[in-house]
Amino acid sequence: MLWTAKKRSEKAGLPPGTLIHIGEKKVEEVTITVIDYDETHCLEKEVKAVEDLFPLRDSPSVTWVNVEGIHEVELLAKIGECFKLHPLTVEDILNTHQRPKMEDFGEYLFIVLKMLHQPDREGETVAEQVSLIVGSNFVLSFQEGMTGDVFNPIRERIRNAKGRITKNASDYLAHALIDAIVDNYFVVLEKLSEDIELLEEQLVEEPGPVTLNSIQNLKREMIYLRKAVWPLREVIGGLQRAESPLIQPSTGIYLRDVYDHTIQVIDTIETYRDILSGMLDIYLSSISNRLNAVMKVLTIITTIFMPLSFAAGVYGMNFRYMPGLESRWGFPLLLIFMVTTGISMLIYFRKMKWL
Predict the structure, then answer these.
(1) Could you tell me if 246 and 114 are in contact, meaning their C-beta atoms sit under 8 angstroms apart?
(2) ∠ at Cα 148 (25, 195), nearest 5°?
């Protein structure tokens, strides 16, 4: 967090549109891949120089340019010049701590999303910012460069000309990318659901500090997910209501479906947050009950030994003349009295259901 604040402070006092990368450098080299397609052809290649993108800007087919790695400011500035992007758009792409949003710049739409990753089954969920530029015949996607993404099924559909994606314009491609990101949220939530179920079993069987730590980690992860997903509802709703000619009415139907999925994801996250809050209350109650049970046992033991300690204390006093002190049966009778008193108190506690 301190590192993030330091990077943001570098922009203090600078004019709007100043290009500074804010975020972590997650790949060594920036990779630019291009897929240019229509109903009859599909051209896929990796571009080494930004100049190679200029001929594709006015292509009659749909062009998808995917950029992995956004730390090279000059390279992104050239891409912005190629596709005539506003400096504020390029500035927001370079800032990886953006809130999910949608902005209409007339000639293109700018969309910011959070793509969730799970590096392994045991690791925490991490979010990667994905920025989309939707033009009349192109879509630009900018990723921070995490290992892998959720777009491979879309690439396969384009390569094999399956479904509607090769028959529609760039807005449908943008919908497909957003839909892939939202659908992956369900995969992440499924894993979290399994973690919550295991945590519930631990909470019932043997709650302890490890259980409390797991609950806190999951609560923190849910807050992180909510922050990444909650604004997405406004983004999808804005795309549905947008009067931009870039969004065709036929695509609006599919955007409504993505909106429904987004609401389901948000509802699931809220449900899991409530469950974890309840689990925390159960944990605290369980620890409190365990402490009460321990105190109950100790209190009963103390109560039983109080009269025994009194009798032992009386006969432990240094007096010469005491009842039974000179009798050969004094000590056995005292022991019998002490044992009888202890057993009687146990029977009484049992009858009162204190044990």
Answers:
(1) no
(2) 100
Closest CA to 34 of 13, 10, 52: 52
Architecture per CATH, domain 2-285, reads as 2-Layer Sandwich (3.30)
Burial of 210 per CB tally in 10 Å (0-12, 13-18, 19+): exposed
Q: Which CATH class is domain 299-351?
A: mainly alpha
The percentage of the chain sitting over the pLDDT mark of 70, rounded to a whole number, equals 91
> What does the pLDDT look like over 208-236, one tens digit per residue?
788 888 888 888 888 888 888 888 888 99
Domain ranges of the chain: 2-285, 299-351
- Greatest CA separation found in the chain? 119
**In 3D, which of 121, 236, 257, 127 has the Cα closest to residue 190?**
121
Q: Are 4 and 22 in contact (CB under 8 A)?
A: yes
Q: Which neighbouring-strand residues pair with 26?
A: none
H or E segment to which residue 36 belongs: strand 31-37
The whole model's pTM is what?
Answer: 0.78
Residue bearing tokens 């120089």: 49
Give per-residue pLDDT as tens, 61-88: 899 999 988 888 899 999 998 898 999 9
